[in-house]
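Hey everyone, long-time lurker, first post.

I ran two proteins through the pipeline my lab uses and got sequence/structure pairs for each. Pasting them in order. The first:
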Amino acid sequence: MPISILNYPVHLQEGLKLNRECLKSQGSQNEDRKVFHRDSLEVSQLSKNREILMDKIKHTVVQSAASFSDMRAGILKEIREEKGQYGYHDVVNACGLSYARLYSEIELRHENEQYYKTDGTPLTKEEEIEWLDMQYGQEVEWQKSCARIAAQGQAFQGNISETPTKEIEKLEDAFYQARDAYMKLYHESKQDGRPLALQNFVFGNSRMYEVLDRLGNLQERVE
């Protein structure tokens, strides 16, 4: 007598009776196993997807416009706490050190791992350095603008005879010299295993710093 078990034909010898309830129970158990196996696979895949997502979030870099200024402000705060005050000479050194430190962070990030932009696309080391260069350029322009505005205010009040245009333009050169000097120091420190620290480099001439420091606008804007 032919019957079907889970869609497979089975031929029973004459005289044998099949317990249909037993067959139904067996079929139900097999179906439960399939459901359990499918659910287990889904849970496993969800877990893997979560791990992938968390790893991507961990390796996502948010390029903040405040990252450079925050680094520079932190260094100047330490200088003020140590010396009681700071001048343009300190600002120039702080900016050079900030650039080198942020550059070192970029290199460290991209040594062995892939990082991403906030839109999920890959972020390269070159793109991060390009962003850092742009931030440094904006910082230099901002410093020059602040010095120029302060000088114009002092000239208007009669405290100085004219705006120190030459000194302000030379200030830009000093900032880029500081960047190059601290990058050289970074590469040397990397080879020697020494930490990258603030130096007392002098870029430009003392006359420039004397003129700019008399503008008296630093404490109000870099804290």
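...and the second, right after it:
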Amino acid sequence: MLLVILPFFFFQLCTVVKYTPDQIRNMEESVRIRSDNEPMALVKLVNGLKQEFSRDESVFELPRAVKLRMIDEILRRLQSSDVKGNVSAQREAVESWRREKLEEAKQLSIGRQGINSTILQEEARMLVRVLESDWAALSEEIGLWIPTEIIHKEHGDKPKGVEDEDLDEDVLPGRPPPPECHAELHTDYDGVAIRWGLTHHRDSAADCCQACIEQAKRAKPGQMKCNIWVYCPAETGCHSPDKYEHKYQECWLKYAEKPKLNFKDRYSEKYRNAHPAAPLVVPWVSGVVSL
């Protein structure tokens, strides 16, 4: 009789391990915690990327000969459609070709006979997929690019009767007023004068606006607070119907419960007939600030 001596660890492997109920609950709890802490959002993102990559790969599955044939057909369609220089017409011509080719591929993929086709039946299913859902990727792969159409519109934002030379002073000297100044070119607002511009000059429209804001902050209870600033940016001075000669850099600080315009954009023909020295365009720049 052959006596076989087994090593001690063999008996250890054959030993049945028994766990207590508490140990089993702890293991189950550990499994549950690991499951709850899985990055599900990351898993979904990775799966989504895999699907995207698989769709992109379908474009490159097309044989090179098929891609070259498609390029040739698209070029011939564009040439025959006489759409040179018309971006919208070019896009429509290419889209028309895509729809026709997609329908042709669908018919072939279901085994429809009697179609005079330039593609083989085994290529039809791939074409259906790329023409229907991967057209953008296929267009990029074959080098098809049509620029976005740019429509130029002339904005009629100049006052009626004002020529280009009348707007030469549209660029304000000095630093530009910040947005809270609500600067309006060729504008003169009415209001009660808190600070007369005849003796109150500032280097720029922005500085004039800032003076208005600071006056409103420093005003004592019961005093009027500046909410309108009017500035003369013209080196030759600014016209006004009063008796004073208004000079460059005058800064008027005013108040009005409901601000109203004196003049906007250009002086009317009737006004200029009554004031022959008045220019065509209102030279002042003004703004209404919030208190």
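Reply from user beta_strand_b:
Welcome! Quick read of the second one: Residues 87-109 form the longest helix (23 residues). The CA atoms of residues 38 and 69 lie 48 Å apart.
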